[in-house]
């Protein structure tokens, strides 16, 4: 269950190839790539800085992945989340899920990104023409996560 928080960009093709390597039983790969938009809440965005709490963030992501693995029969799950200053069009996050069948891969991928958006300790600050502002949680993200039930328990080990 690879989970990485990093400053550097990721290569989607290379990440998926590594996830599938030597696994002929994998019949489905579902991926989500989140990117920086140049507009949020009706205002232009020139950059976004993502901050996290090292150690705590990785544990939260690992707990989300563990919950997905408990709900669906999966081969593997990869989460790569970037931190630092990013510009519009930059990749922020990759969630990739492999399984024997598409239904499980698609559902698990959606579950992981929904919970990541609401439960992982990341903080976003956008730079707009009016100045810098912290980005609040969105009700739509909370609603998406709520349909999966209770949040995954955080791991303490």
Task: Describe, in plain words, how this protein is organized in 3D.
This protein is α+β, with helices and mostly antiparallel strands and 157 residues long. It has four helices and ten strands; from the N terminus they run E-H-E-E-E-E-H-E-E-E-H-E-E-H. Helix 2 runs antiparallel to helix 3 and helix 3 crosses helix 4. The longest helix has 18 residues, at 102-119. It starts with a strand and ends in an 11-residue tail after the last helix.
Dominant shape: globular
- State mean pLDDT (0 to 100 scale): 91
Element pattern in H and E: EHEEEEHEEEHEEH
State the helicity in percent bands: 25-40%
Q: What's the tally of helices?
A: 4
Biggest sheet layout? 4 strands, mixed
Radius of gyration of CA atoms, rounded to a whole number: 16 Å
Uncertain runs are none
Strand order of the largest sheet: 1-6-8-2
What's the oligomerization state?
single chain
Cα-to-Cα separation, first versus last residue: 16 Å
- Helix- and strand-based class? alpha+beta
Number of strands: 10
Strand portion: 25-35%
């Amino acid at each position: 269950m690879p989970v990485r928080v990093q400053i550097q960009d990721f290569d989607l093709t290379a990440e998926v190839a590594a996830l599938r390597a030597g696994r002929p039983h994998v019949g489905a790969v579902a991926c989500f790539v989140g990117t920086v938009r140049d507009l949020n809440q009706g205002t232009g965005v020139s950059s976004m800085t993502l901050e996290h709490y090292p150690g705590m963030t990785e544990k939260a992501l690992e707990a989300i992945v563990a919950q997905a693995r408990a709900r669906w029969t999966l081969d593997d799950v990869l989460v790569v989340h970037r931190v630092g200053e990013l510009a519009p069009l930059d990749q922020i996050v990759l969630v990739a899920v492999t399984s024997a069948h598409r239904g499980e891969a698609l559902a698990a991928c959606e579950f992981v990104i929904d919970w990541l958006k609401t439960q992982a300790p990341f903080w976003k600050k956008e730079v707009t023409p009016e100045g810098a502002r912290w980005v609040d949680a969105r009700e739509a993200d909370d609603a998406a996560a709520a349909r999966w039930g209770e949040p995954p328990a955080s791991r303490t080990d």
